[in-house]
Amino acid sequence: MGHQTQYIHPDLKLSRFDDTFYKADVLFEQHLLVWLISGETKIVQGDKTYWFSAGDILLFPRNQLVTVINYPKYGQPHQSAVMHLTKKRLTDFYNVNKVEVKQMHPPIFRTFEQHPLLKSCLHSLIPYFELQEPLPENIASIKIEEAITILRTIDRDIDHLLANFDEPGKISLTDFMEKNYMFNMSMDKFGYLTGRSLTTFKRDFKKTFQTTPQKWLTEKRLDLAHYQIREKKRKPSEVYLEVGFENLSHFGFAFKRRFGYAPTETAG
């Protein structure tokens, strides 16, 4: 059945995956509050990997790269309720609730496990998905403001994330690419996150790395895969998604072309 998304409001949705797994390198344009109803989620950010199970609640900051892999579990689909905390809605909220914002470097996704206040708030959305018509805006606004208020109650630093409306500025290309090369993003997105137009990104990349972005990305991903397989003794099927490849056979072909042997072979 694949992936299904049911919206009851532009900012409220129910997401379902029935396949063996679903993997995506994501860059959200707005904050997402996610309640995992069933299934299991693996998140890779930088050199760290996190696992979450049914009942866990996560907040994904906008403009942050993460790899998300969703798995069905115990015969149930991977299902989650998602609330979009848009820039406009947060701007309106913080125009009323004034705060002094401190810079956070870098903002990372947050976990709230199964906090009863958030769980109750998000669980109360489920009956709305039985409606035959869209959820009225005034009710959606009440529920989203309730969630924001709960977040502020249980996390004293959350205002510094939610009330920060700055866009990415120009940053070190070397530092950013070395940290984020395993993410399957378009060149436009890489440019945006480093504070550059596409043309400037390609020009600066060539000047910095003496090669094209695509060639450099492929080699870096293969080198990481080689390390994971040879040194960490991991299977190619466990590694290829994490390092930025979408297809196992294509990964195997590229690996052999670079190193002279297949990832399943033991030759060094």
UniProtKB/TrEMBL annotation:
Write down the species.
Dyadobacter psychrophilus
Record has Transmembrane helix as a keyword: no
Give the PANTHER family listed for this entry: ARAC-FAMILY TRANSCRIPTIONAL REGULATOR, HTH-TYPE TRANSCRIPTIONAL REGULATOR EXSA
Instruction: Give the protein's recorded name.
Output: Transcriptional regulator, AraC family
Q: Which intervals of the chain form a coiled coil?
A: none
List the Pfam families hit by this protein, alphabetically. Answer: ExsA_N, HTH_18
Identify the domain of life.
Answer: Bacteria
The alphabetized UniProt keywords are: DNA-binding, Transcription, Transcription regulation
Q: Does the keyword Chloroplast apply?
A: no
Which residue range or ranges hold the HTH araC/xylS-type domain? 171-268
**Which is one GO molecular function term here?**
DNA-binding transcription factor activity
